[in-house]
Design brief:
The protein is of the alpha+beta class and 454 residues long. Helices cover 45% and strands 13% of the residues.
Length: 454
């Protein structure tokens, strides 16, 4: 029986209307207002995220980035988008390579069809909301030979889930309401789950109240710092000195005492003259409540890192996590990054590159795939481990020779087996003819070649 071909969804050119895709769509103007959030409002925005209505959640995500803990975790999760290179992987055959060569100008590492800034915005929405939307703009070339698809970010705040027909919809700047259909040539939906992805891996859901806890603990900590750092000066007038005069106002002595207290508390006057019998006392905040605020802030920072990165190792020993180098940290967070990149790769393939190939080459069978060049941590670890074992093996062989021991093939094989490396073959040294003796006769040559470690 002939082996069947790999299952593949093939897109045909007839599926796409170039005239419709050439129409420019623009989203409505985004809100530029600054919002002050209360805990009930944060909960309402989180509930809107669960319902698939993204106007409030998008505004909440923007506000969360003003917080140091949330911004650092979000920025670290997003950083690999800029750091990891990309490549176009062609299909097999000369024609597949030719199509990939054409696609490189649009979707390759330096392609103009999808910009790194666009992917950073898409990646950010995917992280926070578990969903991101991209829109294609078709531009036929002047000679009619090709149709180029340019991929653009579509703000998620203008997107919502319509429950009655199970459909994502959006509005344009003209007020037109449009359905968002993944892979129709116009729209691309980036997600990691099929069913309600905005309820699954959306960091905003757990992050919203983490942000509230961190922001409020820092606010209260700051208030406590003001209380601890500003001692109050209280004076006691000498016995028999009136506090009030006959007119009901402060007496002259009391006024002078208050003037002195103000001078002391303002730090502008280094000296003061206290009347005999007057006492000065400092009232200081001796509460240890700041320890609670500190612990709340640290816990929130660790929680934010775990939500966004899957680890709090980036905080180091200060945050109570083990200190790790950047290589180890990236290795721990790689599972998160790989999930993001896989969703973006799949979205670009199904929503952009395959429709482009179908429109220009009849179908999508030979459409290349855009791939992130993620380092293989397991492979690198294997190479590093082998290098250590190989170094130890050669060290043992050298030590045997230096000690005057016999190093033959059996010895080398045994050492190689112990170190788990491939055994090299010893070089064959040609026999050496002895120098003539006193009678002019040569010594007899060796009977067989000698194996010698080199």
């Amino acid at each position: 029986m002939v082996a069947s071909k790999k299952a593949q969804k093939v897109r045909e050119s007839e599926e796409f209307s170039v005239s419709q895709l050439s129409r420019q769509l623009t989203p409505p103007l985004s809100s530029s207002s600054v919002h002050t959030w209360t805990v009930p409002e944060i909960r309402n925005a989180r509930d809107a995220q669960l319902q698939g209505i993204f106007s409030l959640p998008a505004l909440l995500a923007a506000s969360m980035r003003t917080n140091s803990a949330m911004f650092t975790a979000w920025e670290n999760r997003l950083a690999p988008q800029r750091a990891i290179g990309v490549e176009l992987v062609p299909r097999k055959g000369a024609r597949g390579k030719a199509i990939a060569g054409e696609a490189g100008g649009l979707y390759g590492p330096e392609g103009v069809g999808v910009h790194p800034d666009t992917l950073a915005d898409i990646h950010s929405d995917l992280i926070n909301h578990g969903l991101a939307i991209g829109s294609n703009r078709a531009e036929p070339r002047d000679d009619g030979s090709r149709v180029d698809l340019f991929h653009e970010y579509w703000p998620i705040e203008h997107v919502r889930w319509r429950e009655h027909d199970q459909q994502l919809i959006t509005q344009t700047s003209e007020g037109e309401e449009l359905p968002i259909v993944h892979g129709d040539g116009r729209w691309t939906v980036y997600r990691k789950h099929t069913h309600r992805p905005w309820q699954m891996q959306a960091c905003l859901l757990p992050g919203a109240l983490i942000w509230a806890a961190h922001a409020h603990s820092i606010r209260d900590w700051t208030k406590g710092s003001t209380s601890h750092g500003n001692a109050k000066v209280v004076g006691t007038l000498p016995e028999g000195v009136a506090l009030q005069g006959t007119d009901g106002n402060l007496s002259g002595e009391a006024q002078e005492a208050i003037t002195l207290l103000r001078a002391i508390s303002s730090l502008d006057q280094p000296v003061g003259l206290k009347p005999f019998g007057m006492d000065l006392d400092y009232l200081m905040n001796t509460s240890n409540a700041w320890q609670v605020w500190e612990q709340l802030a640290v816990n929130a920072e660790k929680a934010a890192a775990r939500v966004y990165l899957g680890t709090d190792g980036m905080l180091g020993s200060i945050g109570g996590a083990p200190g790790v180098d950047i290589g180890q940290l990236f290795g721990v967070a790689t599972t998160k990054v790989q999930g993001d990149f896989s969703a973006i790769e799949r979205g670009l393939s199904e929503g952009v590159i395959e429709p482009w190939a179908a429109m220009n080459f009849g179908d999508s069978r030979l459409a290349p795939r855009r791939r992130y060049m993620m380092p293989d941590a397991d492979k690198e670890k294997t190479h590093e481990d082998y290098a250590k074992r190989s170094t130890a093996f050669h060290g043992d062989v050298a030590a045997y020779k230096a000690g005057g021991f016999i190093v033959n093939q059996a010895t080398v094989n045994r050492l190689a087996e112990l170190h788990g490396v491939e055994a090299p073959t010893l070089a064959v040294v040609a026999p050496v003819t002895a120098a003539p003796n006193e009678e002019g006769a040569n010594a007899p040559p060796s009977a067989a070649p000698v194996l010698q470690a080199v």
